[in-house]
Amino acid sequence: MELTSLFRFFRVFGLVTSLSVPFALASDPQTIGELHPPVVASLGDQKITVFFLKNNLKTQVTGVHVPAAEIFYSPANATRPELNYVWKVEGDEIASVFFHERKTPERAGKSMYVLTKRKESNRSFEGFSYSVLELPLRNDDNQLSLNFFRGDLPESEFQNCRDGLDLEKSQDVVCAYKDAASVKKRLSLLDGQTVEDPRPEPVKASGNETTMACPSPEFSTFLAAFSERADVQKAFVQQPLQLVTTVAGDPEPELQKSSLSGDKLKFPIIPDRAKRDAQGLTLTIKEEQGNQAAAILQKPDTDYVFEYRFVREHCWELKEVMDYSL
Fold first, then answer.
1. Of 26, 86, 163, 308, which is the most exposed, with the fewest CB atoms less than 10 Å away?
2. Number of compact structural domains in the chain
3. pLDDT for 110-151, tens place per residue?
């Protein structure tokens, strides 16, 4: 029997025993612990209790990978103990457990989210790394379950989100997703909901001149608004905008630089989500370091690649577009 499976057997056996015998201890210090208090999840009238069981033997085992903890659930008010394995937890601690209902057709439904926090210390970075685990709730034949789907691709921006100090550049690195509220807000934006993504209101400057309020100081939220609305793009593009295009050269392609302003600037510079989906394009954050950030628009398995470079003063502004397409 594989070592991790053996540990799982004893953990489940011990917890089932503790649930069955009123005076048994709920945690054997030599085997299991509690990484996070149990959470009750519900969907309609159905409820389950979710357990986060810590592997206390992790530091005593060598030569095999043992996760920090594992997630199990049991039907609430069950007549007999029943534990169901869900998935593993790799972080040092669980920063938050919360629920959110997705709206996009391919991910529609209520899920439980586990925000993990892990200490990271090496030659180039000192701080913490945050990751989000999505576990969908399913109700089949009045049986509620908590699931992990290997085929679901997690949002990359929620994974290994660093918060600390870049030692090589002596710059602070800020993770935009280290609490439940910020993750929920981003999920709503990804689903196209406007309830948590208010339109930036025009602000009077001086005389008859009006300017638009900054959509958000957080780059991910700013990019979501910037990519969806041409008026936001017009308000937050530096002029002249620097454009770098790839042109045929001998023997190698060359980069050609130019500047665009006024009527030469055509909007939208970044197509909105509906157009991106129709054309098979993906928009992702490449990097964010201090007051500089970059996003990539590309079509997988083709040479269609655009990089958008932003800088932040009072708000984020697009300063340069790199067209790497041939």
1. 26
2. 3
3. 999 999 999 999 999 999 999 999 999 999 888 899 999 766
Residue 10's domain comprises 1-90
Same domain, 264 and 312: yes
Q: List all residues 6 or more positions away from 162 whose beta carbon is below 8 Å from its beta carbon.
A: 120, 125, 127, 128, 129, 130, 173, 175
Over 70: is that where the pLDDT of 171 sits?
A: yes
| Long-range contacts, stretch 193-200, CB < 8 angstroms, 24+ apart | 193/103, 197/221, 197/224, 197/225, 199/229, 200/225, 200/232
Same domain for 190 and 149: yes
Residue 100: CB atoms within 10 Å = 15
Residue 145: per-residue pLDDT: 94
Global pTM value:
0.54
Query: Which of 30, 55, 90 is at the close of a domain?
Result: 90
